[in-house]
Specification:
With 266 residues, this protein is α+β, with helices and mostly antiparallel strands. It is built from nine helices and twelve strands. It folds into two domains: 164 residues, 2-Layer Sandwich (60s Ribosomal Protein L30, Chain: A), CATH 3.30.1330.100; 93 residues, no CATH class.
Length: 266
Amino acid sequence: MNYWYEGNLNENVNRREKDGVVYYIRGMREVDGRRMERYGIHTHFVEEGESYIRLIQDYVMPLYQPGDILSISEKVIAMCQENTVHMEDVEVGWLAKLLSRFGHRTKSGIGVTEPHKLQLAINMRGVPRVLFAAFIGAFGKLIGKRGLFYRILGVEVAGIDGFYEHSAFDTYHRMATLTPKNPDRVCQRIEDKTGIPAMIVDANDIDVVILGTSLMLRSTADDILSEYIRDNPAGQDDECTPFVLIRDIGDAEAERYIPKMAIISE
């Protein structure tokens, strides 16, 4: 079952501050016998070309405790890498316009109903593979299996994020971020520079994909890492919490947390 929330997850009752850094309690999840508490760290809106190391030093290090895991939104890394595409640089062809009419729109985003996004998929994978994926995806819907389109085209296409006129941020109305380059290497650089084990994730209110991890996390299965953030504690609106610290609190009492009322869907 998927959960969607009306608006921003940053409830004032869950707001905390330490050493000038604002963060929000995101609740505790018990995974594989471990009680993992999550903290969504509030940042400024990250622009293209910023340093992810500097961001982590400024926002995460003041809160970090040995043993913590850092979950990082793929979008913020793509912005730092300037791995983006602007709408005016995408020439939409007739096929993208046609296929986008049959795309599936979800509560977590516009999918491939936006022609520019679909054109990027065609540019990346080519017409034959996109047509094949569209055919299989349509067939999958008939038998109740969704997501086959992206499964065929891969994480790079699934990771196209943006060109969304209803985004909480004006920047993403006419710009898309792509899947981060060398995510394992980025995570390892973060671990080497800061000592924090890190993972880069593509998470929304439907699914979680682990794109990269640092060495200290390689012994933990991706399925377990995904479960730590299965409910998407970074949020899907204008939270500006791209960094989520995950802490094993053992038998300690969890921080008081008042969850936002969820809209329960399929």
